[in-house]
Amino acid sequence: MDRTELADFLRRSRARLTPADVGLSQGARRRTPGLRREEVAQLAGMSTDHYTRLEQARGSRPSRQMLAAVARALRLTGDGRDHLFHLAGEEPPRDRPATEHVRPGLLLVLDRLTDAPAQVVSDRGDVLAQNAMAKALHGDVSARPEAEHNVVWRYFTDPSARELFPAEDRDRAARAAVADLRATLARRPDDARLAGLVRRLRARSEEFSALWDAHDVAVRRADVKRFLHPVVGLLELDCEVLLSPEHDQRLVVYTARPGSESYERLELLRVVGLQDLTRG
Known about the structure:
48% helix, 2 domains, alpha+beta
């Protein structure tokens, strides 16, 4: 691990970004160009102190998960992400059929969506990035253990994940998740990580195993979804799914029809989410 070069690369990458580049307000007058350290830390889901130590060539060696989060926060290209991993003494995740490095273009769109929940999800079901509204709706995925970043795994192994859906919608949601995962495995039958996820789910959940054996296949696209949020109540939202060119990442956006009760509740959710971020 080259701490000095890593620190220099982080500082220079941070200096190239403006608040507008990542969907943040300019705020008060800035003494130096670029993002503040605390802003990068917030975007990466880590403490400011931990990130500061990295920029000062101090502290412990960052984990692969942390490196991926910092690369997303700094809007690094694929080459930049690989360089970051090398400086930290890690091999970049080259051998994964579906990359976890969110494309800068998707992040740029995500940053501009301030009034609608939106998140980038891999076709395996891994949540890769969320905006503030998505965190207010689904919870902050970055605060959970890595295994729980996968929405399919959580849905079939964590009863609390289902509480976000009305009881009458849960069977449909389960079928859609399994059918989408089957479509992904059909596209990439040699994806060892995806096959491992399916094996673990079959071993852990009888419901998943039965649905998998039904062999329904359907790529997740536009839909209408209902959520039972513990603060704002029932939300009926239009779900739009924008696919990346390789179809291995999706930008999922939830909107409510203007004038509807869900529209008003979504606005309340935005306020609640901002308050939570301020307190955090």
